[in-house]
Amino acid sequence: MTNVHQGGRVALITGASRGIGAAVARLLASRGMRVVVNYRSSRGEADDVVASIRSAGGQAMAVQGDVRDGSAVLGMVGQVRSAMGEVEVLVHNALIPYAIKSFDEISWDELGGKLEQEMRAAFLLTKAVVPGMTTRGYGRIVYLGTVLSRQPREGMIALGTSKAALGQFAHFVAQEVGPHGITVNVVAPGPVDETVTTDAALDQEHKERQAAQTAMGRIASPDDVARAVAFYAGDDSGFITGTTAPVNGGLVMD
């Protein structure tokens, strides 16, 4: 068990057993943070991420928990507190399942269900970590959004709408917790290679088309997204809050 007075900041990354979450966990650990790899069902993959961090000299632990379950979230944060101390950095990356359907095909239960579960998870996690951050006078909260909140794509109405709601939620939370030294920001990638969302929504032909529409000539890797998250999770972003980082290689420009 890690002594709570030793090591770097404690960072909880949800959905960190693969893809973007795993890349974030490895990067934050390499920068000296003590990392908590949350997973819902992929215990083996989460253990692999922890092992890779430890083999590189970092500190990490895996914690199971469904981020949509209030008691599970409180239990997870309590487990982290006992082992490492208060969560100082929250990266909410866990993917809430959703239907890939057009507006014509989708039902309210599918659209509304995704919206409700997306916001429930963000709400529960934020509620669980903000008191500890407030006590310390320090906190970093980073939510994973999507470019689809600004640039609609066929079949992605459930994901785009729910992440747009998450973005507005982030603004309100940022406004309220700012005086306590807590920042709240969103990282909103375009398509990201080697992730469940992109693989489910885009075949190879669509990936190539997206790459061709991107100024950088390719779609993002999990590491591209992780670096933006790490900026918001660290001290260099201390006076930046309520913003969204568009990690899309120029697919969408303001």
Strand sequence of the main sheet, in spatial order?
3-2-1-4-5-6-7
**Count of helical regions:** 8
Ranges where pLDDT stays below 50 over 5 or more residues in a row are 1-5
CATH topology: Rossmann fold
Classify the secondary structure makeup into a structural class.
Answer: alpha/beta
Order of secondary-structure elements:
EHEHEHEHEHEHHHE
Sheet-strand content, in percent, reads 5-15%
| Number of DSSP E strands | 7
The oligomeric state of the chains shown is single chain
Quote the distance from N terminus to C terminus. 47 Å
Biggest sheet overview: 7 strands, parallel
Organism: Actinoallomurus bryophytorum
Protein name: 3-oxoacyl-[acyl-carrier protein] reductase
Family: Belongs to the short-chain dehydrogenases/reductases (SDR) family.
GO molecular function, one term: oxidoreductase activity
Structural overview:
This is 3-oxoacyl-[acyl-carrier protein] reductase. One of its GO terms (molecular function) is oxidoreductase activity. The chain has 254 residues and is α/β, with parallel strands linked by helices. The protein has one domain: NAD(P)-binding Rossmann-like Domain (Rossmann fold), CATH 3.40.50. 46% of the residues lie in helices and 15% in strands. The protein has a 7-stranded parallel beta sheet with strand order 3-2-1-4-5-6-7, sandwiched between helices. Helix 1 (19-30) links the parallel strand 1 (10-13) and strand 2. The longest helix has 29 residues, at 108-136. Mean pLDDT is 94; it is low at 1-5.
